[in-house]
Design goal:
single chain, 260 residues, alpha+beta, seven-stranded mixed sheet, 11 strands, 18% strand, transferase
């Protein structure tokens, strides 16, 4: 059976140094060495054929493809589902290297540095789609250790539920952000419709750049009926909350790729 471990975006830091950025009074003390990402890596399976074409060629100078074999087990428990393999893999990579992990369908809307997240041990919401952490962060080691009791029948037992239990037990080891900091609007049908159904700015829908949130997780598998037909030109002419947000990421090169 083919292995369909999801591709993940992961930023490996360069030389450690404190990043000068403001912190809220409730944030924990900065790490001795802050998170200073220097190069984006996209980790994928060694067996996958390297993507070719105008769009991959446009991205190629800006990313490094890093083939790796996903874990097949954790603490003696077999990992069968691609999502569970990716859950474990991101923790292993962050523990080894530190940096920023983001899901491949996550849009970064504001600077993590300016938000004061780059000098924290671990910064996250109650979800593992975005994690900022230094190398060997204690919280990540605790999180990975919970997989000793891994149950493959529980989809998000360790990626969400266990991590929240740890957050309540060890609050000094991480910064938990507010509900709307990273993933809002959520995955519910009405939320996805609100983001993608055409709407007028400031009247309906959701205005991402006015919300103050840091990222948007696009819930790709649930929103595919809206996402799949999109092209750069449709993004520029679209009137949904999503297209208004994504326009910031579209440049002349994208239109050239579309017409190629």
């Amino acid at each position: 059976m083919a292995d369909h471990t999801a591709r993940i975006g992961f930023y490996v830091p360069g030389p450690p140094s404190l990043v000068a950025s403001p912190r809220s009074p409730s944030s924990p003390s900065p790490s001795p060495a802050g998170v200073t990402p220097s190069r984006p890596y996209v980790h994928d399976l060694p067996s996958l054929r390297r993507p070719t074409g105008p769009a991959p060629d446009l991205l190629a100078p800006h990313i490094t493809l890093s083939p790796l074999t996903p874990p097949q087990e954790v603490y003696g428990h077999r990992l069968s589902h691609f999502a569970h393999k990716a859950d474990v893999l991101r923790l292993q990579l962050l523990i080894a290297f530190g940096g920023i992990y983001v899901h491949i369908d996550t849009y970064v809307l504001r600077s993590f540095d300016r938000a004061g997240l780059m000098t924290q041990d671990v910064s996250r919401e109650d979800c593992n789609a975005v994690i900022v952490a230094r190398r060997e962060a204690p919280f990540l080691n605790r999180w990975l250790a919970t997989y000793e009791s891994f149950d493959s029948t529980v989809r998000a037992g360790h990626s969400v539920a266990k991590s929240w239990e740890l957050a309540l037990l060890y609050p000094p080891e991480l910064t938990v952000l507010g509900t709307r900091a990273m993933f809002w609007p959520l995955w519910r049908g009405e939320d996805i419709d609100m983001v993608h159904v055409p709407s007028k700015a400031d009247e309906s829908g959701w205005e991402f750049f006015k919300s103050g949130q840091l990222t948007y997780h696009a819930w790709e598998s649930l929103a595919m009926k809206y996402l799949e037909p999109l092209t750069p030109s449709l993004v520029l002419s679209g009137e949904s909350s999503f297209t208004r947000m994504v326009r910031a990421f579209v440049g002349p090169e994208d239109l050239k790729v579309e017409s190629a």
